[in-house]
Amino acid sequence: MSFGKNILKYKEDLLKDLETLISFQSVTEENQAECEKALNFMLNRAEEFGLETLNVENIAGHAQLGNNGELCGVLTHLDVVPAGNNWDTLPFELTRKDGRLYGRGVADDKGAALITLYCLKALKDAGVEGKNTLRAIFGTDEEKGMKDMETYFSSQPLPEYSFTPDSEYGICRCEKGIIQLELYAETHTGTTLNEFHSGKAVNAVPDTAYVMLDCSENDDHQLFRFADAMENRFEFHYTIDGLMIICHGKAGHACQPEKGSNAATALVELLASNFSYNQLGSVCSFINSAIGMETNGNSMGLKMRDSLSGALTVNVGTIHIGENFATATMDIRYPVTVDGNIILERVKKLSGNENLTVKVLSHLKPLNVDSESPLISLLSSAYKEVMGENPELYSTGGGTYARMLGNKGVAFGPLFKDDYSNMHNANESLDEEKFMKHAEICLEAMYRMYTGKFD
Questions:
Q1: Residues 6 or more apart from 193 whose CB is under 8 A from it?
Q2: Helices marked H in 205-260 — which ranges?
Q3: Strand (E) positions, 84-170?
């Protein structure tokens, strides 16, 4: 029997704690107090389990077992993206329904975070003798640029071996580089467009956008006609302040923007079909001319790919325009063999043509771990012990804490290929049985880290 099966006896306690953890509306920057509550909840539970803990500036922390040998770590995050729209359950309540667990953070990443804590408890309760030091490390700023791990590792050492259960199975040894940008004009220059609002997170495909226009009746009729020819659904409302148009799309994760339907860029496309760029202003002008409905960067001259990690992707996460401001955010994920600074300079040059200023919100360099490393061997053997087969090695456009670890960590689980999560979308969920199967694999891997069984 694999050691990982020891986690199963904690299932109901684990899910009870997950119910509490999901209830914290820990959206980074929007509700920092809730992020701190989530972190303190984890550290308090760790102390109740008899584990050592450390809180680093209320933005990150760890629970620790042992104090020998090499430092090993499992990194997870407690912050989440905004709930968004169109949920069938309450997003900040854990719902068990039809064999699935629903709630914001179940898959990304609160469920996995709680499992790592219970894995430490399982090792301690079983009296396992450790050769190494094992930490479950928790952050609260993963969704907004990973400043939590920058802060944490400014005072704490990097683990020699680590993984983050914040992706899919098998083992993700490559992660694309991620550049997140804000583009803004000193003032809104459009003459017809009065307001435009869409999106709350740069790393999510917005599912709703709306605009307020000051336009003629003929313009209204033209926009109706153009909207009928587009795939997105549009609503037209006449208000005292002018014509309101609402665009509906499909939410998704910025690592695979082609799987969503971007309401913001679709609405810009509709407006550009009838109005000049002078009427729309510089932000909409840039988005329509340089991006349009594309997700591959082609119009910016950035279409590229490599054999290790695949193609570059582009996502417009937010657009907000008012009387005296005009901003947009953009998420670019580029192949591991590419220099991200070249991409950044290209975007700056193009946006400068529209008199836009570019602010770099975050630039996370690519990850590329050797497939023959001891860490890959350990995780492969843990997976095989539980699942009876070897895991595949793969790459992702997603961004995890692994890239903060100096090529000493990878992403590993919790999502299985035959399940779905709706991560960054409405109705985020995981299959309950598979959730506990991940718990077995996670405990098996942490057991091997702790006892030094790397073969």
A1: 211, 212, 213, 271, 275, 279, 280, 281, 284, 321
A2: 217-228
A3: 95-97, 100-102, 133-139, 161-164, 167-168
Which pLDDT tens digit goes with each residue over 431-453?
A: 999 999 999 999 999 999 999 98
Q: What is the pLDDT of residue 120?
A: 98
Closest C-alpha to 454, from 405, 399, 381: 381
Structure tokens at 13: 């306690």
Distance CA 267, CA 282 (A): 15
pLDDT digits (tens, 9 = 90+) for 258-292: 999 999 999 999 999 999 999 999 999 999 999 99
Using CB atoms within 10 Å of the CB of residue 137, give its burial: 0 to 12 exposed, 13 to 18 middle, 19+ buried: buried
Residue 166: is it exposed, middle or buried by C-beta count within 10 angstroms (0-12/13-18/19+)? buried
Would you give the DSSP letter of residue 366? P
Structure confidence by residue, pLDDT tens digits, 124-168: 999 999 999 999 999 999 988 789 999 999 999 999 999 999 999
Task: Measure the CA dihedral 255/257/259/260, to 10°.
Answer: 130
Q: Which pairs with CB-CB distance under 8 Å and at least 24 residues apart come from 447-450?
A: 447/3, 447/4, 447/119, 447/123, 447/128, 447/382, 448/378, 448/381, 448/382, 449/72, 449/74, 449/132, 449/134, 449/161, 449/378, 450/65, 450/66, 450/72, 450/123, 450/128, 450/130, 450/131, 450/132, 450/134
Q: CA dist 55 to 12, 35, 36, 52, 63, Å?
A: 27, 13, 10, 11, 9
Whether a cis peptide bond, with omega within 30° of 0, leads into 84 is no
Task: Please tell me the pTM assigned to this model.
Answer: 0.76
d(CA 106, CA 3): 24
Contacting residues for 427 by C-beta, under 8 A, at least 6 apart: 86, 87, 88, 89, 102
Q: What is the pLDDT of residues 329-359, one digit of tens each?
A: 999 999 999 999 999 999 999 999 889 999 9
Phi, psi of 393 (to 5 degrees): -95, 135
